[in-house]
Design a protein that fits this description.
Number of strands: 10
Largest sheet: 7 strands, mixed
GO biological process, one term: methylation
Oligomer: single chain
Helix content: 40-55%
Number of helices: 18
Keywords: Methyltransferase, S-adenosyl-L-methionine, Transferase
Structural class: alpha/beta
GO molecular function: O-methyltransferase activity
Protein name: O-methyltransferase C-terminal domain-containing protein
Number of domains: 3
InterPro entries: COMT-like, COMT_C, SAM-dependent_MTases_sf, WH-like_DNA-bd_sf, WH_DNA-bd_sf
Radius of gyration: 23 Å
CATH topology of the largest domain: Rossmann fold
Strand content: 5-15%
Shape: globular
Bound molecules: S-adenosylmethionine
Length: about 400
Amino acid sequence: MSSLPLEELISQLETIARDPPDSLVASDTLRSRLRIASRNASRSLEKPAEVIQRVLLAQPVESIAIRIAVDLQLFAALADDKKSLDELAQTTKADRILLGRLLRTLSAFGAVVEADSCYVLSASYKLLADPKFANALASCGDFLGPAYQALPSYLASTKYQNPSDPNNTAVQAAFNTKDKDLFAIFAENPTLAQGFSTLMSTWGDGNSLIQDLLPINRILEDRSDGFDTHVAWVDVGGGYGQKTIALKHAFPELQGHFIVQDLPHIISNAPETQGVENMSHDFFTEQPIKGAKAYYLRQVLHDFPKEPCVRILKELRKVMKSGYSKIFIHEQIVPEYGASVWAVTQDFNMMTLLAAAERTGEQFAEILDDAGLKIVRIYPAPDGESEGIIEADIME
Ligand SMILES: C[S@@+](CC[C@H](N)C(=O)[O-])C[C@H]1O[C@@H](n2cnc3c(N)ncnc32)[C@H](O)[C@@H]1O
């Protein structure tokens, strides 16, 4: 280690931080690897006092500064062009001194760049210049903040049992809501539901898509079933259908119906996309699309404890055509040891909101087994942080 040209390494990292090369930005795998490695290196280099500064102060300050900037529509104000402090004070009507402190903070955290006495929006914060995403961040933040705050006392009150009842998690403790799971809360709060769906539609941007992990196009070309009404693909609990849209976009030549299913209040807001059919369907009820080639579930099972997962899969098992239909589960496949920060963040998220979990391969195997299904193959994420795919078939 001591033989490493450290000065050179540091200077290269500083250059990348200022202006990441296009070749790096274009390669999701390399970009992720470097991002994770530099974050891990940063943590390994922290002194104990710096850990406390980060955990107790810097992390909340970063989140809160971004939230205030969203409230001031500061990112939208910087969407098209750089602006001076005076121009931004005029647009936002905020006190000039306060705004200067906020911008300095945003710059320190990389949300804006200071250039020629002006401020420029960082490329990685562009999404927040879109009011749809800014509003989604605000409404979801207002919900997640109190829920996370409630988690320690909620777990203490259960004597640290693993949460397993979606009607009794930190969310219910935070909002004093009894007998309503997150989805029931969403159904009563369309702004919040839309906020989560909006964020979810980008959650995995940069993560591998199913077509990056396996030759799904070749699998979907299989018409050996001879069905008149050929359904190639059913995206079960597909939200706004962004994964199906990306798949159709990648392989426009693929034949058959491509269907996105979700609950009515979600599917009614899904975009109309040529070649993709939106369908209202509750996945705990009988699956109306029988004998499709592929039933795809992305980030669906992680929303539920084990028993409802088994029920969802059993409904699919009933309509699968033996020797033809397959299930593709696109989720974090958490290793027993060495899990990524994103995997454990999502795991805590699921625990807090839904008494649910991200799962190991073994836990998925148990759930599939209980539903009369078996794992055919696991396709791991190449970057070690994104979700992988479990291909499952009927257990004969
Ligand atoms: C975490 S999101 C994943 C959405 C999408 N698959 C994706 O990858 O972005 C879970 C989805 O399951 C949907 N959902 C929850 N309960 C459902 C039910 N009973 N029937 C159908 N969809 C449901 C939610 O509305 C939400 O869109």
